[in-house]
Amino acid sequence: MMDTEITQLLVRARNGEPERLGEVFQALYPELMRMARSRLRGCNATMTPTVLVHELFLRVTSSDSLSLVDRRHFFAAAAQALRWIMVEDARRSLSQKRGGGAVHVELDEELSPAAPTGAADTGVLALHEGLDALEELSPQRRQVVELRYFAGLEFKEVAELLGISERTAQREWERARAFLLAMLEEGGDG
């Protein structure tokens, strides 16, 4: 389905036809599954890509205040929702476990938490806390990370969505990544 068709469906959904969001999800389902698979790689087995995408669908379609403009805006909202779904799942999983301690979490080039067995939930929560701290420092950098990491957007798409240059998006990514790595290393030591 073309971007213009997605935009038209989103406009219709905003204008009183919420069932059109289902059509958007159906059209974008393969991309959403790809996003979910890449985010869950190495994480716990309680959340599968299918469960993650279906939870995303339930949240987006049940939200009265969500006003999506176009395909990119849809993926930006999806990235933020995926983050919250994964955080809630990690919190739920960790609240059911006893014991344990601080786990050192490292980020690879793509900001993917490197989690030893059983530590994936801790990595998700550490990244979430890092993004909250980053929000206080620079909301734009937090947005760049969410769009790159959770939505899988390219720098060009991130730049267009945020109204900045592609080079600025790349710089903000590098600065955010350095901040998050430093924060996670500090948290892993103590």
TrEMBL record:
The entry's keywords: Sigma factor, Transcription, Transcription regulation
RNA polymerase sigma-70 ECF-like HTH domain span: 4-182
Gene Ontology BP annotations: DNA-templated transcription initiation
An MF annotation (GO) of this entry: sigma factor activity
Pfam families: Sigma70_ECF
SUPFAM superfamilies the UniProt entry points to: Sigma3 and sigma4 domains of RNA polymerase sigma factors (SSF88659)
Name of this protein: Sigma-70 family RNA polymerase sigma factor
